[in-house]
Amino acid sequence: MIKFTFYLFSLILIFAAVRVITVKNPVHAALFLVLTFFSSAAIWLLLRAEFLAIVLVLVYVGAVMVLFLFVVMMLEINFSKLREGFVNNLPVALVVGILILLEMVFVVGAWQSIPPPEIAGVPNTVALGQVLYTDYVYPFEIAAALLLVAMIAAIALTMRPHNRAKYQKPEQQVSVKREDYVRIVNMPSEPKD
After folding, report:
1. Of 19, 47, 78, which residue is a domain's last?
2. 19 has a pLDDT exceeding 60
3. Which of 43-57, 103-117, 135-149 is the most confident on average?
4. Is residue 49 part of a domain?
């Protein structure tokens, strides 16, 4: 049963990850990315890494993806112009994709040969916290600073002025004269029959 669940969530994850990069609508791509994150969280739950699964759902799905969707919908980017050079960049993208795939194969192969560490009587969340805040405290702080910079950049991108915004200018409204807008026209009246 666990193998079936693992393979089911793995297939969903692979499908959603492929749809993230192949779908044309950026909002749909972001929603497929949410599905990818949920599938990854389910696999982490199967691996008994509950803390990582909950953090993935809370941080990425709950905060980062909402921010991505907000930015995508607020920027009003013309995506047809961005896709014009897709075929020209395809060879480079394929090379990078193949390199990433090879790296993942090597990592998974090395990961299967390493026995999992066992700490007697310590839950995996406590063990993760001890390792994260002792051995990896500087990379953790660098990652936090990068996330903060990314969040500020996303907010700055959405705060640009729009051309369609209309503002009132009280000084011009007060200085308006009747002669500028009203013209009195004398017309002869028609006689009544």
Report:
1. 78
2. yes
3. 135-149
4. yes
Q: Domain for residue 180, yes or no?
A: no
- Give the range among 31-35, 68-72, 115-119, 179-183 with minimum mean pLDDT: 115-119
CATH assignment at residue 36? 1.20.120.1200
Domain residues for 23? 1-78
Q: Please report where in the chains the tokens 């990068």 appear, as a residue.
A: 146
Which residue has 């395809």 as its token pair?
Answer: 90
Which residues, 6+ apart, have CB-to-CB distance to 52 below 8 Å? 44, 128
Given a contact cutoff of 8 angstroms between Cβ atoms, the answer to whether 40 and 70 are in contact is: no
What size, in residues, is the chain? Answer: 193
When divided into structural domains, the chain yields a total of 2
Three-state SS string over the chain comes to CHHHHHHHHHHHHHHHHHHHHHCCCHHHHHHHHHHHHHHHHHHHHHCCCHHHHHHHHHHHHHHHHHHHHHHHHHHCCCHHHHCCCHHHHHHHHHHHHHHHHHHHHHHHHHHHHCCCCCCCCCCHHHHHHHHHHHCCHHHHHHHHHHHHHHHHHHHHHHCCCCCCCCCCCHHHHHCCCHHHHCCCCCCCCCCCC
Residue 132 in domain: yes
Lowest-pLDDT range of 35-49, 98-112, 127-141, 161-175: 98-112
